[in-house]
Amino acid sequence: MTVRRGPRPTVERLRRLLVMLPWLMERGEAPLDEMAQRFGLTEEQLVKDIELVSMCGLPPYLDELIDVWIDEGVVSTGIPRVFTKPLRLTAPEGFALLAAARVAMQLPGADGEGALARALEKLAAALGDVVVVEQPQAPATEDVTAAAADNARLRISYWSATDEAPSEREITPRRVFLDRGRWYVIADDHRSGEDRTFRIDRIESWERTGVVDEPRHVEAPDSEGWFEHADLPVVRLELLPAAGWVIERYPTRSIAQRGDFTEVELTVTDPSWLQELLLRLGPTARVLEPAQWQGLGAQAAAALLARYDTGGSDAN
Amino acid sequence: MADALERITNLVALLLETRAPLTLERIANELRGQYPSGDAALRGAFERDKAMLREIGVPIEHEVLSGADAGKTAYRIDRRRYELADLDLSADETHALQMAVAAARLSEGDMGLLKLGADGPVSTTVVANVPDDPMLPALREAAALRAEADFVYRGLRRTLQPYSVLLRDGAWYAIGHDLGHGTVRTYRVDRIEGAVTTGEPGAFERPVGFDVRAAFPADPKLLGDEPSQRAVVRIDVARARWVEARVGEQAVVQRHDDGAIDVEVPCANLDAFRSWLFGLGEHAEVVSPPEVRAAVVAWLREMAGAR
Question: For the domain that residue A43 is a member of, what is the CATH number?
């Protein structure tokens, strides 16, 4: 939990108090520093809250007070009073716990009958079992995740929509993440010598090379921040309403409404990705900038048409 | 006057411990000197405190009195509703939940974990960016309590008896019986406009054996007016293995000498079908039926001509 400094809103202090007090009352005492860390407070903040609450209790506020004090870096409590049990879970807390547990059951390495499954069963029994998460894993996900944990170098064949054949390369997976329903891995790409993000469902084959690289920490990107690498080109698209799903599907750098049209800027990690996207969007999208990509969709369509026009199929 | 936190802590203590519900006059009297004097100022401060307590989930009961205090509202907190139900989690189960919350990064999970007695933060190698939406807790709770949910979607007011919330393809959906349409409907939660209001618990029965997956097909190519519509697509040798691994061996209707395969896939939803097809670039070609092939060719011609 992150510790924030500066003034804290009363509501946040109250939320924590109603959890901290029962926790302390159950134990009797706790070191100040450990308790502060556990509840995401600075020691000064915790001292302030404990001092305040020691003056609270029941009218006439003489003997029926909350029995807490701090002495020599230890927070102690006497007779448990009033706040003996934590406040029930709120709807957002209950949702977050259930959804996180359901999502985690679909992550690589999850044990369908282990501790998480048992915890989920108890949560669902208490809160109602109505959350369903469907998150299929691409075949390579489990092994790529294991390789990331071991810093193991993999040899993979990987393809993008317009490559003629999958490319062979060696990567050292660092971070596996799920975003908008798709699995990605950030890896050292030993072909380019750079960090690259790969879609795991496009890894066609993979094996360990036997090489183990030095551990290296790579931060997992959040939903908005990733793709925002300054050195990647940006495309500006004009979308008809029917193409609006693009905005939900991909991280956008900007969105502007122009009458019936929406203008979006997207980071392009790979021109072949843009080409594929334009094919899917067809007449519902147009490239505004940069100029060299304005004909990209038409070229891709013409290349595909050639296959149909030459009667590549014997069944038409 | 006392610190707001001191006053509100005392208010919770008072309402938890009282045997009979208390009127605002009684509350102000018991918390002497902690509320501002003057009716309007007292009422205003008390309403703000109540709103804050509601925000963090403290259930305050109120009832209108009869007898000597007839017509006055009295308040208390029912301890049974206030307290966390004991989930009886073992240490390893609590730890597993911590790992789950760390992986899914849903912000409210941390406070939930503290209530359940989990200790400090943990980190995970795998991270899932799960979309969070302020409507989700209310919809989940409505489904769990079988309460009707009212909201605006595409400009129209809907009343849904929610059966389930589903995360699929990175988006949350609410699924249930739509009273206006009289059928089972699916709504994308992030397209709900404004707020969700929920009705009384126990307002409907969830059908026995209701299956979200059957009610809302996972393959978008199946969503359409004619769910049985299918197409045969030729996949060349470069992608044949990859496609077969995904659509399954039973979908292969023909194998060619050059390594290409013909697969039969659903195409009830032409948009979804095109997305799948064009994701394969030049390695896939629609063989049949002729009207689907013609639609794809027309789509490409229109694009190619737009140079």
Answer: 1.10.10
Q: Do B293 and A87 touch (CB under 8 A)?
A: no
Q: Is A89 within 8 Å of B112 when comparing Cβ atoms?
A: yes
Looking at the structure, tell me whether residues A166 and A207 fall in a common domain. yes
% of chain B residues with pLDDT over 90: 37
User: Which CATH code of 3.30.420.40, 3.30.1330.60, 1.20.120.1460, 1.10.10.10 fits the domain covering B4-82?
Assistant: 1.10.10.10
Domain-located, residue A4: no
ipTM: 0.77
Angle at B32 between CA B14 and CA A13, to 5 degrees: 55
Residue of A130, A227, A273 to mutate for B, most B C-beta atoms under 10 A: A130
The predicted pLDDT at position A182 comes to 82
Q: CATH topology for B222-304?
A: Alpha-Beta Plaits (3.30.70)
**Eight-state DSSP code of residue B241:** H
Distance set, CA B272 to CA A232, A237, B218, B222 (Å)? 29, 21, 12, 9
Instruction: Record the pTM.
Output: 0.76
- What is the SS3 assignment for A212? strand
pLDDT at A232 over 70: no
